[in-house]
Amino acid sequence: RLTMDPFNSAQDVHRCDLCETAIVHSYCDFCHVNLCMSCIGKHITDGYDKHKIVPFQERRSTLIYPKCGTHPHKTCELQCKNCNDSFVCSSCTASEQHMGHIFVDVSTVYKAKKDNIEKDTEEIVKTISPTYEEIASDLENQLANLDGGYEKITTAMSKQGEQWHREIDIVVNKMKTEISEIKVKHRDLLQKHLDEIKQIQALIKQTLLAIEEIKKSTEVSPTIEYSSKIREFSKLPPKIEVSLPTFIPKPTDHEKLYSLFGQITPFISTATKNKVLSLNKPNTSPRELLDEPELLVTIQTGYEKLCNVTCQNEDRIWASGNMNNIKCFNFKGSLLQTIQTISGIFPSDITVDYDEYLLYSDWSTWTVYKVKNGKTEELIRLQGWKPINLCIASNGDLLVTMFSDDGTQSKVVRYSGSTEKQTIQFDDEGKPLYSGNGKIKYISENRNHDICVADCGAGAVVVVNQDRKLRWRYTGHPSVTKNKPFKPFGITTDSQSRILTSDSDNHCIHFLHQNGQFLRYIDNCDLGDPFGLCVDNNDNLFVCELYKGNVKKIKYLK
């Protein structure tokens, strides 16, 4: 209770919560109650042991440990690392159940969590929340200026219409209707993104309120159970910049009134690149296939055998082959950087994470490495399994194909950082999804979150959903000219959720629908032994030519 001291009205004075008159002297750190000297005895009459009386200046300094479920009269001041960080008391540590286990002080974990909460609070308040405010403000400004922009367009249409005969009025009204419909879609798009931002802002405020409650509380369980949302909130949505359509007048021609009166271009929605690359997604609007794919660029890498390629950003790729290094090129073919592998052996595969750091797998050391700021560090080290091929999932997880040391088993493992989250190895009947051998198995996650593996040993593309359920297998397409057995090597997916996989022996790329139907071949551009594949954010295809050592950039969509 906080009251005004009649003898010193310039400052507030804390009062006893029991008698509400005397000035506070002590504090019960268990019940969170202010106490004067006279009321302490009254407060602890129901059992002294459960109360914790401390000087008022030291309030909220005592940790409230959870009660032990096995020994109710004891509190749990330790966590057992061998039992999923379960709370244990001193009696539990001496029990047979926890014999030989590793224990840590709850107070240590509690302090670390409190520190993380403080950091999260600062990150949300200083960075994340203001950024969302800026995005919301920008969208609101676009909405506010929407009517004025569209009014200018309709005015231009009216002026053009006045120069025509009265029969042109029909065309004018029809076009105004079109622009109004576009305006509705334009507004809906902006409002949709604004609503999404507002929803996230509400979650941020809700999180801040929850954090404040935890910060004020000394209860251990909520603090220990606290899960940071910084990673979730840090994945900023693309900044939406929707340009107005344009009206392009044309000369008068009575026979072609509608076509010559003008042209309305649809509004163009562009998303600027943000720091969190997982949200910098390619354009997903429908795009038609070119009648004949076009070769845009050929990059000579210098590898005698070129296996892997991955895009780092809009103008750089990494490539690797049968040498103990990994090379970075720009799209003009200039060598920008060379990274030496730790083991001195060629890397099994390469990929780039959302922070644009290079990752590579090395089967000879059972390890996946990350190259960060020019330094190579160990990310994942396996035991009994050799990592082969890699891809980054849409949520930032790392997917790794691997085979057992004896070469009899294969599986896919999902990692968050260095932590294993999911294993994909068997179907619902307990049968292996992938061939049991030491052959490469390139992997890619589709836009619908399907996990696609090119299993060359089985002669099949194997696709499972995110719940590890087998969706379909593709074993090739009958062809008179493609007469060698289908052995898929590289695999990638585009913005339309379609799948591309390289058929090296038949010198072509198979282009598949997300449900497994064959759509077409890409077999021109003088492709020779296509191997590793990747697609950039503009749906340009990059193809490794195994024995030529070239990376070819191919345009296949209009």
Automatic annotation (TrEMBL):
InterPro entries: 6-blade_b-propeller_TolB-like, TRIM45/56/19-like, Znf_B-box. It comes from the Eukaryota. This is B box-type domain-containing protein. Keywords: Metal-binding, Zinc, Zinc-finger. Residues 11-56 form the B box-type domain. SUPFAM superfamilies: Apolipoprotein A-I, B-box zinc-binding domain, NHL repeat. One of its GO terms (molecular function) is zinc ion binding.
